[in-house]
Amino acid sequence: MIAFLQGRVADKNQDSIVLDVGGVGFLVYTNTATIAKAGQEPDKFKVYTHMIVREDAMDICGFATKEELEIFKKLIAISSVGAKSAISILSQMTVSQLAAAVVTQDAKAIAKAQGIGIKTAQKIILDLQGKIKDEDIVRGFETGASDAQAVSSAPDSSYAKDAYEALCALGFPSQDVLKVVTALQKDYNSADEIIRQALRRLSPV
Predict the structure, then answer these.
(1) From the CB of residue 164, how many other CB atoms can be counted at a distance below 10 Å?
(2) Backbone phi, then psi, for 24, in 5-degree steps?
(3) What is the pLDDT of residue 187?
(4) Which of 53, 71, 98, 165 has its CA 20 to 30 A from that of 133?
């Protein structure tokens, strides 16, 4: 098993890069974010890899971060999601955006990826529930509203992130907190107000 590859970017394609590692060119299938980063670091670029072996082919998929690789592995473990579909999803959204979509059950956001239908998106959400790390959810708050690929329902403000962390510290389930804060941040622009309103929803009398 090849854990990672590091070398010179010899070529870039729409869905892959070619890494020259000691004179050997490795074709690595990847997402658009990794391809963009490869262009910024062409002389010495590192990708974390996963090899997929089939009867008629041996493909290497790789990503610029370990987080992308880990979520890629979770995606291809789902029966209806292959490597191409998983890469398509990670080209449409970041790990944090996918985490937010799973927690808020936003199938439409995932279905924006090429080749992903709404039923497949719903299956992804069902399968990944409980498998998303809390740190991935928190990173979802750091998605800027100016990001064209941002999940429309994902919290994107510092005060929303502060409110989320404060409510989680009080012991409320992170998934419940994210759903409530996601809705409230559209109407309130301070952490204190979001927390007050969220407490009413999370602790109904």
Answers:
(1) 27
(2) -110, 130
(3) 85
(4) 53
